[in-house]
Amino acid sequence: MEIRELKNKKNQLLLDMEKVALAGFNTESRAKFDRMNKELETIEADIQRSAVLANHEAESREFVRSPRPGIGTSNGELVGERRDKLNKAFRSYFRAGGNVAAVEAEYRDLLTTSDVTGGALIPQEFYGELVNMTKWVGPISQKVRNKVTDGTGRPMKISLGNDTANGLVILNTEGSSAPAETDPGFESKILGVDTVSGGLVKISVEEMADSAFNLDSAIRDYFGIRYARGLETIVTLGKDSAGNTLPNSQAGGLLGATAVGTTTTALANGIAWDDLVNLQAALDPSYAISPSWVMSSGTRSYLLGLKDGFGRPYFTPDPSGDSPLSKLLGWPIVINQAMPSVGTANATPILFGDLEKAYLLRTDGLPSIIKLSERFMDVLEYGFLMFSRVGSTSLAYNANPVLKLQQAAS
């Protein structure tokens, strides 16, 4: 299914979910909403899967496979050439009036009904695309500020300034009153990098030779998605995908460096309309020029069924757009699956603010993928290894470019 069709299906599903939610929940409608929400997550994953496969298909067109019996060739002949010969022999047989001698020997009396009579020679039909399972990879690592350094790993000094407390002060006595010293505030921090890996993948020599797909390209695609998913966790939580704290990333990541903007009244009350309004109002206007909401897909689905005090839904659908429910209170939503879920005491499931002014992701050089052509040759295997060097830190200095909504303790 094309990406456009998947997006249209996603948009329609979101609108249907909103109708169910606005009609009020009971046992039946709640179960229906949950099924639709699960389907929504599947479609979002399909959209990403389709994008990956489209890229893979484009690359596969440029890949020329070596001749191999049974998949792309037969006895060194292209499948198309072999089919033409078979058709020619079939016509020749009938023109000869059933004279078997008129037909080339290798095409005589072979049947596909069993392996013994020739079925063993018939190649299986092969679906020409590698179908990958996917999991949503959020764009948070591209929404914060990015800095690519020269690959030397040297510590990078970051300078921060804050002059927000100063303005204009009257001089009371002309000619005799000197202005008070009001220097701006400055701070610096040193940002290093940690080496992170996408893991090791080993492929046998036989698999590389026999595969109908360009496995080099497929492994590269897998590593690319692992890299993006890992950066999401690093930026959000300051940890790797296994939950290990990274020494050269902000403690707690973006989530830990963000101040609480508002707290809900009671855990059982969930997130009210006033809570979202209060969070937006708490943000300094200088950071409200191009802010974003950050939340998981589960939190978005939860908010999808809520209404404000006038009975209006939180989301205003725009069926003409690619993402009709991609904004809340007029500002875009960034889906981030590393964010906490709704419904946990003291959880912070929503962020709001200017992500680029709040956080910095440093990548020291580009991610590298190494093909190990000799290390595992004693067992006839190739190895593929991906690694990168990254660090991240908050850019906030006595200011709050991003705020978070915290749920009550009870």
Q: Could you walk me through the main structural features you see in this protein, from its secondary elements to its overall organization?
A:
- With 410 residues, the chain is of the alpha+beta class.
- Among the domains are: 49 residues; 213 residues, no CATH class.
- Helices cover 32% and strands 20% of the residues.
- The protein is built from ten helices and 15 strands.
- The chain has a six-stranded mixed beta sheet with strand order 7-15-11-8-10-9.
- A hairpin with an 8-residue loop joins strand 13 and strand 14.
- About 5% of the residues have low confidence.
Task: Annotate the secondary structure layout.
Elements: H1 3-22, H2 27-61, E1 73-74, E2 77-78, H3 79-95, H4 140-143, E3 145-149, E4 156-162, E5 185-191, E6 194-204, H5 205-210, H6 215-237, H7 253-257, E7 259-263, H8 273-282, E8 292-295, H9 297-304, E9 327-328, E10 331-335, E11 350-353, H10 355-358, E12 359-364, E13 368-372, E14 381-394, E15 402-406
Parallel strand pairs: 3-12, 7-15, 8-10
Antiparallel strand pairs: 1-2, 4-5, 6-14, 8-11, 9-10, 11-15, 12-14, 13-14
Helix pairs in contact: 1-2
